[in-house]
Amino acid sequence: MAIIRCLNTFAVLTCVLLIIVYEDNTICVAFSPSKERQHSSNISYRIIKAQKYSHNVSTVPRDQCGIAVERRIDCARDRSLSRAECESRGCCYLPLPQSGLRGPPWCFYTVFYPGYKMGPMLPTERGHRAILTRSAPSYLPRDIHTLQLDVMAETQDRLHLTLKDPTSPRYEVPFVKSQSKGHKSMENPLYDVDFQPEPFGFSVRRKSNGRVLLNTTIGPLLFADQYLQLSTSLASSTVSGLGEHYTPITLDLDWSSVSLWNRDMAPHRSANLYGSHPFFLVQEGDGQAHGVFLLNSNAMEVFMQPAPALTWVTIGGILDFFIFLGPSPQSVIQQYQEVIGYPMMPPYWSLGFHLCRWGYTSTNITRTVVQLMRQAKIPLDVQWNDLDYADQRRVFTFDPQRFGDLPQMVEDFHQLGMKYVLILDPGISSASPPGSYKPFDDGLKKGVFINNSTGQILIGKVWPGPTAFPDFTNPTTQDWWMDWIKDFYNKVPVDGLWIDMNEPSNFVQGSVDGCPDSELEKPPYTPGVIGGQLNSGTLCVSAQQYLSNHYNLHNLYGLTEAIATHRALLKVKKTRPFVLSRSSFPGLGRFSAHWTGDVRSDWEQLRFSIPAVLLFGLYGIPLVGADVCGFGGDTNEELCVRWTQLGAFYPFMRNHNDRPNAPQEPYVFSQRAQDAMRMVINLRYSLLPFLYTLFHHAHTSASTVARPLFLQFPTDPDCRSIDRQFLWGSSLLISPVLEQGAVEVMAYLPPGTWYSLHNGQTYYSKGQYIVFPASLDTIIVHVRERSIIPQQAPALTTAISRKNPFTLTVGLSVGNLAKGELFWDDGESLDTFERGDYSYLLFFAEESYVVSKPIKLNGSLDGLVLGEVRVFGVQTPPTAVWANGQKVPDFSYRLDTKVLTVAGLELPMTAKITIQWS
Ligand SMILES: *[C@@H]1O[C@H](CO)[C@@H](O)[C@H](O)[C@H]1NC(C)=O
Ligand SMILES: *[C@@H]1O[C@H](CO)[C@@H](O)[C@H](O)[C@H]1NC(C)=O
Ligand SMILES: *[C@@H]1O[C@H](CO)[C@@H](O)[C@H](O)[C@H]1NC(C)=O
Ligand SMILES: *[C@@H]1O[C@H](CO)[C@@H](O)[C@H](O)[C@H]1NC(C)=O
Ligand SMILES: *[C@@H]1O[C@H](CO)[C@@H](O)[C@H](O)[C@H]1NC(C)=O
Ligand SMILES: *[C@@H]1O[C@H](CO)[C@@H](O)[C@H](O)[C@H]1NC(C)=O
Ligand SMILES: *[C@@H]1O[C@H](CO)[C@@H](O)[C@H](O)[C@H]1NC(C)=O
Predict the structure, then answer these.
(1) Do 336 and 307 belong together in one domain?
(2) Collapsing DSSP states into helix, strand and coil, what is residue 676?
(3) DSSP state of 39
(4) Which end of the chain has fewer surrounding CB within 10 Å, N or C?
(5) Looking at ligand 4, which atom is closest to the CA of residue 362?
């Protein structure tokens, strides 16, 4: 293929079309946009032509089959094909010696495989448009013969490309796109795009270095009613994303695939789990990164191969691609969240410790749990109940005997400064005698439920028995949901809602009546999902919802329920809603927290909870954690201690257990284990001011909270795939023990100076692994040089700890510099940042002083004091210390660790504070 470089920039402001036809038939088309669109004037589109486009379906020329084995794109994904069948599809058939379950295909496309032909590109309101036509039918039923391509240079770092049917509208994903703030500069786009008209394909290059990020000409574009496929080369083999799966932080490209179809499925390998996130980030190898988001909610399978390359196959909707140019990995995540929305600001209490189990079968038992936690002096902010509370497992009710005093119990918890959350499943019991269960009767009357394909309410089976499923895409349903949440809240003043089972999960396949034998239920191609069928463990996909059928909307069920629940809580409580959702889709983080579902109590699941949590951070759902000590199966003391240590650094920390298992509340273990758990939960509580400030940044600028090392140290090749350690923001490095019996950790410290958070001991790293002793009561945490961490003395609840004296922990750089900050508000009012109702402090250290400087004050810090300053890395022993100019008698300095501690202070946080030493 000849590539001709065309003009790169066009200064002309009126609409001009330049066509240059070169001798070898390469066409170069460039548009300069009209005045309104002058922003996109610096993107160059090049149109290039395949050298020898010739294809004869019955005889594939052998020379076109000479594709390197690792670059073969499978032409027989739907079933295995004989040579004759393969060749009749127009594909190459070249068997390989060994065949396993995974490996290169024998039947594969050529790069000239007939696809679409692109017509001329014309400018539009938002970018450029071309019509694509398919010359010959593909082997798929119901090809879409004509496609409309729109190319929109939306910002200098975001390219948006859609392919849809211009003649008859197809389903497009609702709810997700949110215009978040973020810079919108169009000057000097970071990308160029090349188009190959026939067979249609495009490539995207990073302008600065010419790197090809995507090249879709390596395989055909297929676009049939129920089968859409596009392949692309990848710029490197370091790819993260495409959740939710049980994987390390980077994906395996060795002929593997992942399917995206929300499913109630305990985390295990090769299974589609609760959520779908068709977004991935590629580390390009030199510290730069880009991301690709395919906004499509249909069942999808993404195939990966070592070329490196990847093929999207989705079975409905349109192709709606966003490409984010970074160039830093953190900016890729921010650019992604500009499309799907920045995460909500969580209430402060939700960062405390949560305790739950299925099997707290009465208020008495639940009250006892709280009592025992308090006796053990272990912080607990939020007590939970699973479905035990509900009368005959029906939501919006509570058992009159076992939970008869539920309202009083919640009030009592509130008196203790605690919060209370309970489970709310979407399935509405449909089998109660008429008049005995109003949420159903009312829903029936209002038509809020999902119908089956013949227009009657679809009945499935969940915990209460036969159930109907609310259709949250219907505005009437959202109002009905709000009414019933309000009705319940007026009796039981819950502080948040836990929306479980919302994939949605169904204990019968499809419905109690089964599912019709249709092309929706049994599409020409079904992605590799657990159970083999789309309706396994969920609803018939032919079911009808307000906006479309369940086939299209399935993956949005949890998101739409989260939106409705968030809205209802907002209405009834008028404070920041707390919602915890199991099922997820892009955009969920605006409304909800997430936990990683039914993890097993074992060491492997402990270890894989780290990449799971980190990946959800990339998906814009920073408030996430795994069930501490594991949910399924019996835990044991050592595992539970180690899990509590790691869990203390999940952004969301909840211990939750399944009904039949050995108990795992901290107080059931030995004194030694309890001490270790208390210590680390106290450590978490002491760090909550810092964690809260990180959430503020996530909410206002989409920065990550629990952060993979590669995001912070993108140019350090050793960080590329580390997922046994992680950071909080840019400053705290957490290196937990993840193996049974281990009493040390081999932890990687990126180049620079690091201090033990516990005692300030200094480590100078060249970028190396260091072994740290980690007895059962220890989790290894390091403070990065140049950072100042605001802390606060812990307490049994955040209601109390929020009033305690602050501590500043300062990690000096070699040049004695450090900085940090604190975002503070009342912890629960709505939109405090947006309304300017918050306080903001900056901290900095230079030479021999530390300063706390209020930038903005709002009364939220009134009465709060700075009690202590710890300075790590003070090289010269100080002889005197001054606080705001007054000599401090009470300071200590350790020669061995070089830590200066100034304690016993009582300095108002609302004033400028200077601590100086010499
Ligand atoms: C395709 O190949 C077949 C068999 O060689 C030949 O008969 C036919 O004419 C060819 N068609 C075209 C369009 O080249
Ligand atoms: C195009 O790029 C040039 C430099 O490459 C820059 O000076 C100019 O402002 C850009 N124009 C627009 C409209 O972005
Ligand atoms: C894209 O891939 C095709 C097929 O492998 C190759 O011929 C072409 O050079 C690639 N384009 C770019 C820009 O790398
Ligand atoms: C709960 O405890 C109270 C007071 O101890 C007792 O009167 C009541 O019977 C208990 N309820 C249940 C259901 O065990
Ligand atoms: C489902 O059926 C009910 C009752 O026939 C009707 O009110 C409702 O509009 C239907 N919903 C949809 C999405 O078709
Ligand atoms: C829809 O539900 C009704 C009532 O339960 C049932 O009779 C009918 O067979 C169902 N239709 C399908 C296609 O399952
Ligand atoms: C807090 O900020 C809001 C908005 O700027 C302002 O109206 C209010 O008076 C402030 N409250 C205090 C106590 O400073």
Answers:
(1) yes
(2) helix
(3) G
(4) C
(5) 13
1 lines ligand 3 (CB under 6 A): yes
Domain at 524, CATH number:
3.20.20.80
C-alpha torsion angle, residues 461, 463, 468, 471 (rounded to 10) = -120
Judgement on whether residues 447 and 589 belong to the same structural domain of the protein: yes
Instruction: Measure CA 52 to chain center.
Output: 44
Query: Are residues 233 and 143 part of one domain?
Result: yes
CA angle 642, 648, 650 (to 5 degrees): 105
Active site amino acids: 500, 503
Do residues 851 and 913 lie in contact, with contact meaning Cβ atoms separated by under 8 Å?
Answer: yes
572 lines ligand 3 (CB under 6 A): no
- Closest ligand 7 atom, CA of 858? 14
Per the structure, the complete domain to which residue 462 belongs is given by: 426-595
Residue 184: HSE in the Cβ half-sphere, 13 Å Cα cutoff? 6
Number of compact structural domains in the chain: 4
Domain-terminating residue out of 303, 321, 340: 340
Give CA–CA dist 185/834, Å, rounded.
Answer: 23
Q: Classify residue 748: in a domain, yes or no.
A: no
Q: Helices H, strands E: what count in the chain?
A: 14, 54
Domain assignment present for 421: no
* DSSP H or E segment with residue 593: strand 593-595
pTM across the whole model? 0.93
Instruction: Answer yes or no: is 505 within a domain.
Output: yes
Residue 881 lies in a domain: yes
β 92-93/116-118 pair status = unpaired
- Separation of 573 CA from ligand 7 center, angstroms? 21
pLDDT digits (tens, 9 = 90+) for 544-603: 999 999 999 999 999 999 999 999 999 999 999 999 999 999 999 999 999 999 999 999
Question: Would you say 629 and 644 are in contact if contact means Cβ atoms under 8 Å apart?
Answer: yes
| Pairwise CA distance, residues 321 & 776, whole Å | 48
What secondary structure does DSSP assign to 414-466, as a single string? Answer: HHTT-EEEEE--S-EE--SPTTS-HHHHHHHHHT-BPB-TTSSBP-EEETTEE
Q: Which of 595, 628, 650 is the last residue of a domain?
A: 595
At 111-126, the pLDDT tens digits run 888 899 999 999 887 7
The token pair at 886 is: 């007054």
DSSP state for residue 275 in the 8-state scheme:
B
Residues 96 and 186 in one domain: no
